[in-house]
Amino acid sequence: MSENLLSIRDLKVHFPIRQGTSRLLKAVDGVDLEIQRGESVALVGESGSGKSTLGATIVGMQKPTTGQIIFDGNELGNDKESAAKRMRDIQIVFQDPVSALNPRMDIGDSIAEPLAIHGVGSRVQRAQRVAELLELVGLNPQHADRKPSMFSGGQRQRIVIARAIALQPKLLVLDEPVSALDVSIRSQILNLLLELQQRLGLSYLFISHDLSVVRHFADRVAVLYLGRIAETGRTADVFSRPVHPYTEALLSAVPLPDPKAQRTRQRIILQGDLPSPANPPAGCRFSTRCPIAEPICRETPPSLQPVRPMQQAACHLRAPAVHI
Ligand SMILES: Nc1ncnc2c1ncn2[C@@H]1O[C@H](COP(=O)(O)OP(=O)(O)OP(=O)(O)O)[C@@H](O)[C@H]1O
Ligand SMILES: [Mg+2]
């Protein structure tokens, strides 16, 4: 059994800008990513960088334009078999638990729905499994016959998580799972996710804007900029020694735990807005906003190069390609 649960190779997801035109919006444009069994990998980057599109493509809600998705040793395509495998083994949790639950359905029925669809167990066995799942996510198993409106936002996200793990998936894509929740309950949900990961051996792709959350949550991090990975590495390494100027800028906005260090740290303010993925800059996509860009950066796109064990960056200046 390979250690890699998920391998993504040169994945591209392009959208036609308007029906009938040939111009493309390159939401994801050549991403390689691996997730090992039991590992949590965070995907970070500004709004519009392609995080949700990548997540949706992994779960099969979005068709890739080109590239490969290899899951558990098999390439996932658009055939029935791949769809069935995905439904069992890969689940997604979105940020808004309110729209994720049918308001007219008892929460127990919502949680049991994937089991019923897959014909798992009898009615009684499914009810038992629902009770078990409710307990697992920290809710009262006797509340299975209540409607979603009886629960708080945090409790509803627990219900959504219970449904996501009902079929014992191997990978959960968590798309901003706590962003819609009150700040005071975010850490409870994050702790629940960490606890479930330990107990069930789950792997996570954790999509988040919030780098201070990522620091505590993820084993590894991938920084996305306009559909490409700018830097990737172990979370502790990337946070303590970022290599790419974009990672540096993102991290400079994250408050440091040590107040003394916080007072002396420099915030890097990026010039200009994120360019449109419909019309990305030539060369390095970050070159139009990069404080250290040189002519080569505006001409040639950099590829990811190793900088330290397990850490790679796509930057001509900080991580030059070695030509042998
Ligand atoms: N179905 C679609 N059709 C056309 N364009 C799309 C579609 N889905 C996403 N896009 C575009 O692809 C780009 C990436 O969007 P995506 O939602 O993946 O970004 P994101 O990183 O998740 O952003 P956010 O942090 O705001 O959630 C955006 O420019 C978006 O407008
Ligand atoms: Mg998104």
Notes on the protein architecture:
There is one protein chain. With 324 residues, the protein is an alpha/beta fold. It has a domain at 239-324. It is 34% helix and 23% strand. The protein contains twelve helices and twelve strands. The protein has an eight-stranded mixed sheet with strand order 6-7-8-3-9-10-12-11, sandwiched between helices. A four-stranded antiparallel sheet has the order 2-1-4-5, with helices on one face. α5 (123-136) crosses α6 (153-164) and α6 runs parallel beside α7 (183-200). The longest helix has 18 residues, at 183-200. It is globular, with a radius of gyration of 21 Å. The model has no long low-confidence stretch (mean pLDDT 94). It binds adenosine-5'-triphosphate and magnesium ion.
Order of adjacent strands in the largest pleated sheet: 6-7-8-3-9-10-12-11
Rg (C-alpha, Å): 21 Å
Averaged pLDDT, please?
Answer: 94
Describe the global form: globular
Distance between the termini: 34 Å
